[in-house]
Amino acid sequence: MSDLPPVELLVCVKCRRELEVPEGGTRPGEVLHAELASRAMPEGVTLKAVECLSNCSSGCSVAVRGGSGRWTYVYGNLMEDRDADMVVEGITKYAATADGIVPWRERPEHFRKNCIARIPPQEV
Question: For 63-112, how does the pLDDT look when each residue is reduced to its tens digit (9 = 90+)?
Fold first, then answer.
């Protein structure tokens, strides 16, 4: 996998999942990021917190991108307390591709049903 471009897993830490979060409280997106940070990422994958993915009505959200030749994906409706392992599974499969396209049936079911956006690579 080392000959493939690096991958970034971007986690929206501002996501509230439409819950009321008191001033200074921990947001669900922060919890999801912490859960992901506690897991080993696949080779070549960097986890990054981002301020907002503008996907507020679709729960916790992540984006995955990996170089100018790969598709970028945004996934939503993630639960901070149960979906971290599934996200790592999906990112592992993504990181193993040259173009970012994981065959549909090989994607975690949640990724199949909660893809918010698919953005073409820069090099089309």
Answer: 999 999 999 999 999 999 999 999 999 999 999 999 999 999 999 999 99
The stretches of 2-119 forming alpha helices (DSSP H) are: 28-37, 84-95, 109-113
Which residues make beta-bridge pairs with 51?
Answer: none
How big is the chain, counted in residues?
124
How far is residue 8 from each of residues 2, 19, 25, measured CA to CA in Å? 14, 27, 27
Q: What values do phi and psi take at 6, rounded to 5?
A: -65, 160
Q: How many CA atoms lie within 13 A of 104 on its CB side?
A: 4
Predicted TM-score of the model (pTM)? 0.93
Helix (H, G, I), strand (E, B) or coil at 2: coil
